[in-house]
Amino acid sequence: MNRAGRWFGLLVALLAITVAAVVAARAVQPDEMLKDPLLEARARALSRDLRCMVCQNQSIDDSEAPLARDLRVLVRERLTEGDSDRQVMDFLTARYGPFVLLKPPLEWQTALLWFGPAAILVVAAAALLLTARRRKSPHQGPDGGGEDTRLSATEEAHLAELLAAADSPGPRPTS
Amino acid sequence: MIPELGHFALVVALGLALVQGAVPFWGARCRDPALMAVAAPAAVGQLAFVGVAFVALVWCHVASDFSVLTVYENSHSAKPLIYKIAGVWGNHEGSMLLWVLILALFGALAAVFGRGLPATLRADTLAVQGWIAAVFDLFILLTSNPFVRLAQAPFEGRDLNPILQDPGLAIHPPLLYLGYVGFSITFSFAVAALIAGRVDAAWARWVRPWTLAAWMVLTLGIATGSYWAYYTLGWGGWWFWDPVENASLMPWIGGTALLHSAVVLEKRGALKVWTILLAVLTFSLSLLGTFLVRSGVLTSVHAFAQDPARGVFILAVLMLFVGGGLALFAWRAPVLQRGGLFAPISREGALVFNNLFLVTACATVFVGTLYPIALEALTGEKISVGAPFFRATFVPLFVPVLIAMSFGPLLPWKRGDLHGAAQRLVGALAIALVGIAATLAVDSRGPVLAPFGLGLALFVMAGAVADLVERIGLFRSPFATAVRRAGGLPRSAWGTMVAHFGVGLCVLGIVGETLWGAERIAALKPGQTQSIRHYDVTFDSVTPRQGPNYRELAGTFTIRRNGQTIGVMEPSRRVYPVRGTTTTEAALMTRGASQLYLSLGDPDPDGATVVRFYHKPLVLLIWLGPVVMMLGGALSLSDRRVRVGAPRPAGAGRAVQAAE
Q1: pLDDT tens across A102-120, in order?
Q2: How far is A94 from chain B (nearest CA, A)?
Q3: Do A152 and B386 touch (CB under 8 A)?
Q4: Which residues neighbour A48 within 8 Å (Cβ) at sequence distance 6 or greater?
Q5: Domain ranges across chain B
Q6: What is the predicted ipTM?
Q7: Which class would CATH give A3-100?
Q8: In chain A, which among 15-44 make CB contacts under 8 A with chain B?
Q9: Nearest-angstrom CA–CA distance, B215 and B210
Q10: B245, B422, B451, B583: which sits with the fewest CB atoms below 10 Å from its CB?
Q11: For B1-165, CATH number?
């Protein structure tokens, strides 16, 4: 790529960063807030679970972007009209897709997301129990204590080799 | 001239890294002491040459040499000196050079302190360190060269992103990288053990202090970053479950698990294979964090695909080391000799429990961070995984860890008695219950979770102290005896207690801030007063001011409590003209561990200014906790067992047995 082209790319990137920095911080404005404190509290709680779709990982409650403001106003409109929390979320999901939800719904595509770690926990715990049981039964006392001092096959071979090399003084105790 | 010198030094460092990676490794294979002895001087030379490159880059920034592209893009002649220096790592190229510098630093430290190690282990460890250094030197030279010159030098630079012009961000990246890259030593060490096919006492003794050192700085680094976000971003959040934060949290959790399994390995010779695996995984997570942050894949999968040079290179590095490390593990781990056995209810058992849940919590963060990227790449479908997801999954996984944390130190090695440990925790439980009852009595209409959160935090803190009380027999024997015993306790025991207490402090801060915090948002005109909790805040005036490289509009607020003036707060809004960026400078007033937080919005057309008021109870504990945890780590690191023998080459193996 020529120098001018690279420069232009850099300028665009810097501009994007600058815009993102301006957009960051301070969200809910006093003029948006509802008079009814209970309704406003519900609106705030819902806003925290809704993504500002033009921002990076910000809820509409945190974002200063115009789109976030529109969504906040929309949430409050729906609540004032008597929608339940569930209805508001459904309305927004229908309109903007699941991308708007910061906590993805449980579906086939998200099953691994929701259950993956739990599966890891179960598998790891089961593996631990099995190993513990397997190692305890064959050559260990019932108390499960003590080190496994038996030599592996390679070590047996190595030991035999050493003993053979030092054959004259006879077998010495191996400490 | 100076930039070229830096560039040249980096090329020499690459050459040295290749030597460090190849010669000692070969020497270890054919047992040639002369070849193996190349490792240490090569590692020290690596540090020297990367150091020269880094100093050269710092010089370019300090001297405002705008003929260097990265300096032009990220600096400005009017910037204060500290931010000229901090600006070196405030961008991709410079931060990668810092990464490599720290890698070289750890390599050199390992070379210097590793004199007591068996020669082949030391040679292999430094060789692996050399491979990592070579790959990252190459990465910088090929894709992210910070010394690229401009044909025509501009007169002025474009300035550093203003939100990065902050003392917090001057020290946050170096600390974070010290932690991340510190785990490279445990990785190299683990790979060397896998190559040798044995984990002996010297290995076990070595791995814990290095893990501990890396973990300590990472803890402090994450806390610094969190506090920076808290006061800079202007709405008082301190953790956002942002992928960039998750990228640093994953190695931290991995490192915490590694630290605890290394204790078992050191003391009891058990969990060898598991410790090796964790060492490989922890550094893999550090590399993954570097990849996530540096490749642009987080911004969007498409941005990554459009400018893939860096991303693909780091992805290849990631696959090389993670894939290579895990493959080597799968191949060689069965060769390792199994360690000592223990009953499920024992200190070892508690630490395994801790590891199980920590690893699962880490997996939750991993899956949550990467799932949207993977799903979009595979199916094109876009989903969001944000804070609500992590709150619903990560927090429940951490609660068992917190509860078990108090039991662990009270259980003896090999075989313990849960009932006995529980009896010793009766006092801690009583404190927690009193806390819960008091919360319910004072604030019965507050958040449902608050009493339990508080109870948990108190239980963790009291549990940590219970361990100490038990060990010195505080209430059972005369006070003087107890004090004498306290003095005789090993520092690692004190370290555990202090660190666990720090975790409790942090939990207490989180509970206080999230469940009892208050927020008011109002449009005020000068002279108007807003009240929040026990405080009345009067908006006095708003005045324009001029700073070195910014203009600001500063508000003055008088804070009163019960009619008495307790202070003045001055939040402001700054405009940095070079980039046309606006930032919010929040004002903080500390009252005990709690803070009053004011942030200024834009003025209305009719003369009112939007002001955000926050009362954040116990918020400082969120960061004080990690500092205490780090101090606990430092105490443990200063333990006799670690100090004695470390500088003494021959006695290393014997000292372990003596400490048993």
Answers
A1: 998 888 888 889 998 889 8
A2: 14
A3: no
A4: A59, A61, A102, B387, B388
A5: 1-165, 178-415, 425-517+622-660, 518-616
A6: 0.79
A7: mainly alpha
A8: 17-18, 21-22, 24-31, 33
A9: 8
A10: B422
A11: 1.20.120
